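tool_call: predict_structure(chain=1)
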Amino acid sequence: MDYRKAGLRDVEIEIIRRELGREPNEAELRIFGVMWSEHCSYKSSRPLLSLFPKNGPAVLKGVGENAGVVDAGRGWGLAFKVESHNHPSAVEPYQGAATGVGGIIRDILAMGARPMASLDGLFFGKADSPKTRFLSDGIVKGVGGYGNCVGVPTVGGKTLYDERYEGNPLLNAFCMGLVASDSIVSSQTAEPGNLVVLLGSKTGRDGIGGAAFASAELGEDTKASRPQVQIGDPFVEKLLIEACLEALEKDLVASMQDMGAAGITSSASEIAAKSGVGMILDLDKVPLRETDMEAWEIALSESQERMLLIVRPEKLKSVLALGEKWDLDCAVIGETVEGDRFILEKGGRIRVDLPASLIGGGCPEIAWPAAKPKDLVNRQTFEFDEAELPKDLVLPLLKLLSSPSLREKSWITQQYDSMVQVNTVQGPGAPVSLVRIKENGNIAAMTMEALPWACYLDPYRGGYETMARSLRPLWITGARHLGMTNCLNFPSPENPEQYWEFQESVKGLAACCTDLLCPVVSGNVSLYNESAGLSILPTPLVCSVGLLDAGRKPLLPGNWKEGDHLFVAGIDNASIPGSHFQVNFLGRLNGRPLPPAPEMERDFMVRALLTSERNLADSANPLLGGGLGIALCKESILSGLGAEVLLDTPTHSVAAFFAEGGARALYAVPATKIPEFLQIWRGFPLRPIGVVGGSELRLPGSEPVPVQMISKAWKGA
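tool_result:
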């Protein structure tokens, strides 16, 4: 087999030949092709990922494991991670999305955690195109179908439409689970003499080469790629979750790894390399659902609902009994040994004999050249032409409110079970999702954020703002942040201008994490997101996790009370470039987002946390997509109340209402609590903007708008 057909580069095959002292055989070439693919090796991104701060007082397990774990208090930890399933979802939307959800759930399970909440990030093309309707329908059904059946609530997420995702939609799946702090499972604890046990579904040909498929651009004929999409069974996954958690509870497992990209090869070689042991596997002992499978097919199959367990010999009988109890295939397929060899046998012959450390850690980094885009100056040129701005705020407000990215997403969220496990405090539709931790009384808070328009205009500033915007809703709610996970979705790094966008976005994210002391505990990189010559926008997606202590009441939006006074905390002159107003109303994308302001972010954090802690507001909303105007509308709709808005500011009313970016929030404060509220925010930009009351939203210079009309616009009417 030609090494190039396996996806290997000249420099890579030379390293393989040198380290082995021979030519690799076909099975070995295929293994290197998958394990040294972009998806598995991170060869284009490792130097950039080293910029992220990875340590913090709350970090119990960080980067290098299946998921990160942070301290949730009183002996409990939260395990969480986000991963992409972009290419499979573009080719086979239902199964691509479903197996993305299943895979991230198993990452959490592999840490010994019971999965307790999911979020999904969805990026689609033009909302009215037949292709987008087909893809979005299948992807949403896949997310809901799998999550609902397996019993993990989908409690929130992010949805954005832009023509740049037309041929390559993004599906980013996040999961969080709960684990006792002294029971966290590691992939680094195997010892020589352990048995290697495969638990779960039988192995077939579905998903073979999936990792390599995810590391190349999509062709125009996506049907040809369907064999590389895995097929999921959520009911088997539910059994697998219970079986694994029972095995851990009974101390039957020394180490555990889910089987995702590259299947048995990836999970087994990773445990071997991280634990410093060798591994000998007999592929004839792997339960199969298809006949005549080659050794490399068994080794690289990405059949779903499988876990690799490392078991001490004296515990084997109990593990096999557990498999029988939960009606799951359970088979000893090998053993761990001294040394660094990864050996696969079949038919009594050795088919693969490689150093485990070379498979997982030997791929050389690629230093792609980076170049500023030639059109960057034009891209960042923006003139605020008042002649094209509307005199009346109502028209742009209703247009934005009904735009695909901002309108109500009930057609999506109604397909998800957000209440299963009955721990959901705040589900889909709010800036932050909240889940009760029954074991200690605390509340876990989660956000998901991505700002591809801002990252396109200025990747560094866009990356920084993406990270900051994921944290602000936590603080406003009253949650202190513990850590973040990210999914870095970008097109081909081989294009110098695209690699520069990737590089600068990561630098911006990392700088914000460093400035605001937010460790990165896990993550995923998804490159080569382009199809038929159309590349996606730079889309780093961030999920941040925080904690509210037991007994604390979260401060949430949608709770205006008659007579509440409205205040905007934060600067007036935020950014029109990269905003929903610019893209959806002005119909263009140019200029630069706001520069980072770390001191202001830290100042905002302290004051927002105090405001929530002292229960000084009835309602609060971070100013996110659509700015102040959309925040006012959503509060009005959810509360069923109008307001008199009297914005006295030198900033143009359009900028004041629709600009985005910066540490800003809308607060509704009862009259009796205004003095203490003002005391907390003294020294920070703060402006009174009106009073809640009536059934209309009354904006300066505009006719009153009934709340009912606003609600209809939000629902797409």
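agent: Residues 399 and 585 are 7 Å apart (CA to CA). Proceeding to next step.
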